[in-house]
Amino acid sequence: MRKYICVLFLCVISFASIAQEKKEAKDYFDKVKTLDSTVKTLYAVISGEKGKERDWDLFKFLFQPDARLIPSGKNEKGEFMVRYMKPDDYVKGSGKWLVENGFIEKEIHRRVNAFGNIAHVFSTYEAYKYDTGDKPFMRGINSIQLLNDGKRWWIVNIYWTQETEKTPIPKKYLPKELK
């Protein structure tokens, strides 16, 4: 009888856990119904004031299982390089820093090309240490590739680079007020 009660208890806990996961996933589906909501959620989920924890479950929910995040920049020799990360790698490598330092990334301009169930978003961003920051400490462009599977939008890849003195953001990728 004792074994039966233990098994029943474990089943109840497992079903409750699965139900909670499904509820959370269902709550997240509103965030990925449209291309616009998916991109806005990406920016919102990594942004936060110093000390604010991020919803990394939501962050990971945005990405297709084989998705990659691909930052580009110069190495110590001055050569342009890329690094390939899975969403979990990004969280492990940047999550603590984002919380400890504060990081607010705001989209300031967007260009979208779409065909059928695929889309490419060229999204210009500014980054601040805190929400009321006057001047961004960084700007750049996120190249975001997405897939719609008929139910939702998935981020397939994000490939980005920062603006530098030698490579300023072209005017066509800036809002009218900044051109």
C-alpha Rg (nearest Å): 20 Å
Reading side by side through the largest sheet, how are the strands ordered?
A: 2-1-6-5-4-3
Q: Please bin the fraction of helical residues.
A: 25-40%
Q: DSSP strand (E) fraction?
A: 25-35%
Catalogue the unreliable spans: 6-23
Provide a descriptive summary of the structure in words.
It is a single chain. Helix content is 34%, strand content 33%. The chain is built from 4 helices and 6 strands, in the order H-H-H-E-E-H-E-E-E-E. It has helices at residues 2-29, 35-46, 56-61, 87-101, and strands spanning 63-74, 80-82, 104-115, 118-128, 138-148, 153-162. Strands 2-1-6-5-4-3 form a 6-stranded mixed sheet. A hairpin with a 2-residue loop joins strand 3 (104-115) and strand 4 (118-128). The protein is globular. Mean pLDDT is 88; it is low at 6-23.
What's this, in brief?
This protein has 179 residues and is α+β, with helices and mostly antiparallel strands. The chain has helices at 2-29, 35-46, 56-61, 87-101; strands at 63-74, 80-82, 104-115, 118-128, 138-148, 153-162.
Name a few traits of the molecule:
six-stranded mixed sheet; 179 residues; 6 strands; alpha+beta
